[in-house]
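Exercise: predict the fold of this chain.
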Amino acid sequence: MNKAACAVGLLGALLGGISQARAQTPGTWGTWFIGTVQLPGTPENKWGGYAEVQARTNGLFSQYFYNELKGGLSYDLDKNFTVMLAGGRYATYKPREVGEGPLNTEARLWLQITLNQYMERLRVEHRYRLEQRWFNYSGDSTGTRNRLRYRLNTFLPLNKSAIGPGTVFLSVYDEIFLNPKGPVFERNRVYAGAGYQFNKHLTAQAGWVHQANYNLPAYKQGQFIPQNTSAKNNVVLAFTYRLGRRAATTAPEHLPSQQD
């Protein structure tokens, strides 16, 4: 069977299952579109970087309300150990009223450490991130916040022993978001999806992400309001273009991690 046809069929089946689930739970699904350009480090040149644009919709492929613009500089301390300094701008709009401008914007700066493990077939990524966040709200108020994040990401190539050109793969991750000021357990993000690496440059992924936000309990107007959770399912469509280096003599395996 043609590998590309197999990948398209796998992604189509995944999206079909997501659409069916959405039909059973109306109003709980959104969409994330992610486009990334990467310059990975190599044994000859350990410096790298990336740039990314992301758009999100409140409904499935409808009601655009959010975007991200991000970029960063990385350095490979080892073939399995990378540090990164990155930043971005995040804007949230009111659905169907985007022309009125963002409800709030955020500037974010973070330091990140990534450790990779390569087993016989399974690939495991541990990502640690420390964020500094600056908010600007439409009511002219501002705020700052720190956050810690940890993501455990696994990849399983299906038709090859390693991830490279022509590889169909599965990806699953869980990421926790910790807020020093509370709620300590601020957010949890779970993803499952499939992808295909067309060549040494282009990779496409489609999947499902469930994001749950946790709010602090409060005492308002004489009533105790317990901690509550807001959660949403989203379809994720991600495309990554990896730049090559002319002087590189080797082509190490690169995990198709989403930078979000």
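Check your answer against the key: The chain has a mean pLDDT of 87.
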